[in-house]
Amino acid sequence: MSWRTSTRSADNGGQCVEVGPLADGSGRVAVRHSHNPESSVIVYTRAEWAAFLAGAKDGEFDFGSGS
To answer: Fewest CB atoms within 10 Å of the CB: 39, 46, 48, 55?
Structure first.
């Protein structure tokens, strides 16, 4: 699996998140913590991942902004 580190993680205290597509052709995406790569991996469907990215881009998870 080819893991990529989130470009935004390093700016937030180095709590790095890595993502990577599963090699089975399903379109599913795996997510893990880069400081503990042998720990649990969460797998999302392509639709779930797309919904998460859309929410993140819309600021849905900006909890510090008072919303």
So the answer is: 39
- Beta strand segments in the chain, E: 4-5, 17-21, 29-33, 42-44
Q: What is the mean pLDDT of each run of 10 residues along the chain (67 residues)?
A: 76 74 94 88 95 90 66
DSSP state letter for 34: T
- Alpha-carbon span 13 to 54, nearest angstrom: 23
User: Does the global pTM surpass 0.85?
Assistant: no
Query: What are the residue boundaries of the structural domains of the chain, listed by start?
Result: 4-58
Residue 54's SS3 state is: helix
Asked if 18 and 25 count as a contact pair (C-beta separation under 8 A), the reply is no
As given in the structure block, the two tokens for residue 34 are 């880069």
